[in-house]
Amino acid sequence: MTKPTIQLVWFKRDLRTVDHAPLYMAAQKGLVLPIYIFEPELWSQKDASLRHWRFVQDCLIELNHDLSRLGQPLIQLYGNVIDVFKQLKSHYQISGVWSHQETGNLWSYTRDQKLITWLKSHDIPWYEFKQHPIHRGKSQRDYWQSQANHHFNQACLPEPEALPFVQEQTTLPNYLLLPSAICEQEQIQKGGRSLGLKLLQRFLTQRVGHYLFDIANPIKAPQNSSRLSPHLTWGSLSIREVIQAAQFRQTQAPVNQQRGLTAFISRCFWQSHFMQKLETEPQMEKHCLHAATENLRLDNPSAGEFLQAWLEGQTGVPMIDACMRSLRVTGWLPFRMRAMVVSFASYQLWIDWRLIAPPLAQLFTDYEPGIHYSQIQMQSGTTGINAMRVYSPLKQGKDHDPLGLFIKTWCPELQAVPVEYIHQPWTMPIEWQSHFGVFIGQDYPAPLVDIDESAKRAKNKLATLRKDPNARQQAKSVFITHGSRAKRPKKTPSKTPKSKTTRPGNTAKQAVPDNQLSLF
């Protein structure tokens, strides 16, 4: 019996039918069999969690609906990729495998290398397409911006007109066991393309005017950020269609939305900029970019104890604890708060970033390896080319949660603490602790460390290391490979005071927050 000849379209972090080059191009070549493979080994990695899978499941349900509408349902398979391909090869003549390039973790990179070898041994071509302006192999950072512009300016591809029927739908078993993200009362975002499109529309037409003002605010950011990051991570929306939608909105939006739209588009470009770093150097998941810092934090005997307290929101520093408890439940934090909690763990608690990265990845619904590892190394000072970002949780708390409303939401044991002590309750006199019924060290933990003194020690250690001539030479090499080539405008003294921008809907003038690099 003759085996049917098919084009195999492999969905991974691209769970959509629109602007999907592998699906569109494969459909021009013949019968298409669309597959998704649940890989047990991938999902057992330390950076994977059940909340990731729940979002992916939502996306797969809609993806199957859209593919079925076109004529061929999604085939959901379980097992090692090569074993799955062997099984498919026994039933079909596979003319080609079609997929998007994946900037995943080190495990997926190694898996792809093995699959390439197997496919070549069976004369099966693998056609990989870019869904980001990411370049494999040696990448010229000098030309990255122009290459990114070219990629994002290309037209989005439509769905194929139809997919001839090949096989009945298969679904994954419902007994999949995955590591939990540690919280029973999860309130994570739902997945699926339809929800992503609604979020995009609401953000571009309603919320973007508040974007720059509220992006760092832990209370307001959940409502006024785009919240598109998990949809971009798992590919229910393409980054190109999101950028083009924002650019089109710029042609119609009122003046008070223009700066927010410009900032949002810039952050979308930054997403690919950071993903390029991991694609260029996959080993950065395991090793410091700046080799001189490789053993920097291995001298902390309390690292394990501190890590657990940090993850559970029990450090004794309210702004840190509120952020970590919020993250455990919601799967999301504003970027400024993400940077702060990583900086605190790296500097004040002196924990090696390799202990921080995997459990933190489990907690983020929008975990994107390229951004995750690049940012964690940046915030922990191990890139060698970025300034030390040692955040003061007291300053960040007072700036972004001055009344302690966010803190009291997530640290209810501090509800009775007055505002003047809410950011550092350990300074509250014992008679006040007795009066308000909140005893530090009993009802709420005392700080694990002296946050000012520990930050000072950490900065001194890193500064001393960076002065070493060999460390400076290593830093130059890191910049050649990974450094941004974006030209920054020179600051010139202004003869007249700059006017402050007013929040939409307010008459009082307020300064726009600084442009600390942030995403979504």
Describe the structure.
This protein has 520 residues and is mainly alpha-helical. The chain is built from 23 helices and five strands. The protein has helices spanning 21-27, 40-43, 50-70, 81-91, 106-121, 144-153, 193-207, 211-214, 221-224, 229-234, 239-250, 255-280, 303-312, 318-330, 335-348, 353-363, 369-380, 393-400, 405-410, 419-422, 430-436, 451-467, 469-482, and strands at 5-11, 32-38, 75-78, 93-100, 126-129. Strands 3-2-1-4-5 form a five-stranded parallel beta sheet, sandwiched between helices. Helix 1 (21-27) links the parallel strand 1 and strand 2. Helix 12 packs across helix 17 (369-380) and helix 15 packs across helix 17. The longest helix has 26 residues, at 255-280. It is globular, with a radius of gyration of 24 Å. The N and C termini lie far apart (53 Å). Residues 491-520 have low confidence and may be disordered.
